[in-house]
Amino acid sequence: MTENKINPRDDEHMGNMDGGDIPAGVVTTPMDDPRLSGTSSSSRPTEPMNEVAYSAFKKRDKWIIVLLVSVASFFSPLTANIYFPAIPTIANAFHKSTELINLTVTMYMVFQGISPMVWGPLADLIGRRPLFLLCLFLLSASCVGLALVPTNAYWLLLVLRCVQAAGSASTVALAAGCMGDIATPAERGSFFGFSGIGTLLGPAIGPVIGGLLAESLGWRSIFWFLCIASAAALVCAYLLLPETLRAIVGDGSIPPPRIYRTPIALVRPQWTTPIEKRPPAKSLQNPLRLLMYPDVAVLLTFNGMFYAVFYGVTATISSIFAVRYPFLTETELGLVFLSVGGGMVVGSMFTGKLLDRDYRRIKAKMDANRGQDSEKQASKDDDDFPIELARLRSMPVYLSIYIVTVVGYGWSLRRDTHIAVPIILQFIRWLSNSSG
Q: Is 297 helix (H, G, I), strand (E, B) or coil?
């Protein structure tokens, strides 16, 4: 491997580039938004950021890292959705109402939201690798407990589901921070797009796997499956996943402490910087400070409403369909969830094209209004480009379709229509949700 040296500007700005001031789950980086890094735009490097200056990892190494963290982050949606088809069976096994078993879903969601605010800042402080290993260990251990939990200990089921959420949900945030460490803004779109495949596949295949396992081997087999899969991911991460936190390894050319090194150095740039030049560690940050920005708070609230509807509907599919359509087996209940995952996958496939179309339309309109002006005027107009309008102009259409299909879904179940009606409405709803 050719020798890579840290750009002198890296030392000057390392404190702002390591991601230590931003929770790992936030895609925005100091290079993108100076409000979150504490630096003004004038203090940032003016020349374009190239791959060698920003990261010593080669392209192949970056994709290996992205693959490893994406596999780990896949467990968050998988663990949440594989549980749904077995809810009626688990309710019968524990002699509890469906509402009480759904409470375990609610608690999972609560810890799914809280845990990244804890693990994210810790990952910015002590490193990505140890937090990945800790989260996967918690997930695997909690799945063992859930597979063995006595049916007369409902409280233990509730507690273990919370621990399971704390272990699995944070892997998405950690993966985002890891990709921010190694990738320039120009590369992050491809990396996040690849890692997003697992987020989409989880709701699609998770319930199908859960239904098959619950019907053939019993509901406990769901947790044994998750235990084995997460333990395998833990072993792979321990053997292969390198440390990427810039406060520890800089651009990757600074040798990390031995405790951070992998037994199998499949991914490792040539270390060229003395250990004493390692940038200083960052202090623990408060992730709630992001809520101080009105635009961030509005976006989080809006997306939070969508996810509330998502889980409110998804968590009740198996119990409602089991009552309305009693001829369905557990496997068939799992197949019903394909309408959710399928709508999300298809919608996401078209999202980028729809956004690009809106962008081109507004750009063409601006070009037509300014005519054949000079390049200087064109540059000025580009600086004033209404990016919010370009990205959000279609949102009212998608939101209207979403609302209509939610109402239609409820009506179809109330009227005991043919099973195809609510399934098709589910598909259209999540198609519009993903596109919006």
A: helix
* Side chain identity at residue 387, one-letter code: I
Task: Compute how many other C-beta atoms are within 10 angstroms of the C-beta atom of residue 351.
Answer: 14
Under 8 Å between Cβ of 194 and 183: no
pLDDT at 333: 83
94-128: buried (b, 16+ CB within 10 Å) or exposed (e) per residue? bebebeebbbbbebbbebbeebbbbbbbbbbbbbb
CB-based contact 25:122 (threshold 8 Å): no
Distance CA 49, CA 39 (A): 17
Terminal Cα distance for the chain, rounded: 44
pLDDT for the residue numbered 113: 82
Strand, coil or helix: what is 249? helix
| Burial of residue 187 (number of CB atoms within 10 Å: 0-12, 13-18, 19+) | middle
- All residues at 6 or more sequence positions from 353 whose CB lies less than 8 Å from its CB, including other chains: none
What pLDDT does residue 423 have?
A: 87
The token pair at 421 is 């009606």
CB 144 within 8 A of CB 164: no
What CA–CA distance (Å, rounded) separates 228 from 311? 26
Identify the burial level of 318 via C-beta atoms within 10 angstroms of its C-beta, where 0-12 means exposed, 13-18 middle and 19 or more buried: buried
Class of domain 8-290: mainly alpha
The span from the CA of 405 to the CA of 297, in Å, is 27
Question: 58-70 burial string, b = 16+ CB within 10 Å, else e?
Answer: beebbebbbebbb
Q: Kindly report the number of other CB atoms within 10 A of residue 144's CB atom.
A: 15
C-alpha span between 154 and 101 (Å, rounded): 9
Q: Residue 377's CB: how many other CB atoms inside 10 A?
A: 12
Whole-angstrom Cα distance, residue 222 to residue 96? 19
What are the tens digits of pLDDT across the range 224-254? 999 999 999 999 989 888 888 888 888 777 8
Q: What's the pLDDT at 233? A: 92
Which parts of the chain register pLDDT below 50? 1-52, 276, 374-376, 378-380
pLDDT of the residue at 284: 62
Within 325-419, where are the H helices?
A: 330-336, 338-370, 375-383, 387-392, 395-414
Both structure tokens of 59: 């392209």
